[in-house]
Design goal:
Blueprint (H helix, E strand, L loop, with lengths): L4 E3 L4 E2 L3 E5 L7 H16 L4 E5 L1 H4 L6 H17 L8 E4 L5 H10 L4 H5 L2 H7 L8 H15 L5 E3 L5 H18 L5 E2 L1 E3 L8 E2 L2 E5 L17 H9 L19 H14 L3 H8 L4 H27 L2 H30 L7
The protein binds adenosine monophosphate and tryptophan.
């Protein structure tokens, strides 16, 4: 991570990290390795970090209210169990900080229809039936840009699937700065790093591990117990060959590559280090090692999530306290934005 973000004309912004996850179902290994684990590392490196359960994004597709409430608390528990400390980082749910939606309206007026129409996540989620998709699903990336820019966040750690949305966020910041002749919003950098920016499906190495896959065997959930984790790895699809001798040999072998990537990310090793150790091994040797490692890393998180979920009131208190701290940063930035736009009453 560079030491500061750069605005349109080179203005410097203090480093600040923001990221969000939708509370829309079970957290899985992809979320952990691609997001939560890295968030905890960023926090521990001492960068001011803001992490948000984006409940308003979740409702762009129908959510059962009781399930949304449960999923929001469980996501918060997942953050904390993965090492996010609510005293060091700011943890909150999006709907408690109205400045996100207020800023999103401004960005609805900055972003262009053509930009939004190019978003592949919208096309994937809306499918053939785009006329029936909610207006919120179409506007989703403008709310996401608001999440980030209402804090002047300079860095956003995400999985690879969010790259296009981050590029749109940069476009919105640039256009706002340009249209109003200011250097107000930073051009935020996506942080897409590590061996696990794309953890793949355990039953099909060409598809992303996802909560929406109908097969539970396709993913490891953060709520799985040790036996389930081990079983899913034992049954993960592989080809009949042993592991190749080096990382190049993984190129055409998506399932093998995925398991090696997962091992590397869980063990905090590079791909080359894993291959130096495990190259040439058969899966009957490598899988039990991976299973042990996964159980060792994931089972304590699942146990801690279970413990935290026994006291939902405490989780709610944590989220409210986080929201108050978030609002203290967002409110003045929104006021300044309104002032730039010419809204009466917004001046300092
Ligand atoms: P989602 O579950 O799609 O809301 O994603 C939450 C976070 O986890 C985002 O930062 C995603 O980029 C990341 N993520 C989701 N699925 C994966 C995956 N299979 N591999 C790596 N990161 C992922
Ligand atoms: N769109 C992200 C996802 O689906 C979630 C998200 C919403 C987000 N707002 C964000 C991620 C701001 C990073 C920053 O994973």
């Amino acid at each position: 991570m560079t030491e500061a973000g750069t605005g349109a004309g080179g203005a410097k912004f203090a480093p600040r990290v923001f990221s969000g996850i939708q509370p829309s179902g079970d957290l899985h290994l992809g979320n952990y390795l691609g997001a939560l684990k890295r968030f905890a590392e960023t926090q521990d490196a001492g960068v001011e970090s803001i992490y948000c359960m984006v409940d308003l994004h979740a409702i762009t597709v129908w959510q059962d209210p009781a399930e949304l409430r449960h999923a929001t608390r469980e996501l918060a528990a997942g953050f904390i169990a993965s090492g996010l400390d609510p005293d060091k980082s700011i943890l909150f749910n999006q709907s408690q900080v109205a400045e996100h939606t207020q800023m999103a309206w401004v960005f609805n007026c900055v972003a262009r229809m053509g930009w939004m129409k190019r978003m592949t996540q919208f096309k994937d989620k809306a499918g053939k039936n785009a006329e029936q998709a909610s207006l919120g699903l179409f506007g989703y990336p403008a709310l996401m840009a608001a999440d980030i820019l209402v804090y002047h966040a300079t860095h956003v750690p995400v999985g690879e699937d969010q790259k296009q949305h981050l590029e749109l966020t940069q476009e919105i910041a640039r256009k706002f700065n340009h249209d109003y002749g200011v250097e107000f919003f930073p051009v935020t950098e996506p942080v897409i790093e590590g061996t696990a920016t794309r953890v793949m499906n355990l039953r099909d190495g060409t598809k992303k591990m996802s909560k929406s896959d109908p097969s539970d065997m396709s993913r490891i959930n953060l709520t799985d117990d040790a036996d389930t984790i081990a079983k899913k790895i034992r049954k993960a699809k592989t080809d009949p060959e042993p592991l190749p001798l080096d990382a190049d040999g993984l190129a055409e072998r998506p399932e093998a590559r995925n398991l090696v990537n997962i091992y590397a990310a869980l063990a905090d090793m590079s791909l080359d280090q894993v291959m130096a150790e495990a190259g040439g091994q058969s899966f009957s040797v490598f899988k039990p090692r991976l299973a042990d490692l996964a159980v060792d890393r994931i089972a304590p998180i699942s146990a801690e999530m279970g413990r935290l979920m026994e006291d939902p009131d405490e989780i709610d208190r944590t989220l409210s306290a986080g929201a108050a701290r978030a609002r203290a940063i967002a409110a003045p930035i929104l006021r300044r934005t309104y002032d730039i736009l010419g809204m009466v009453g917004a001046g300092a």
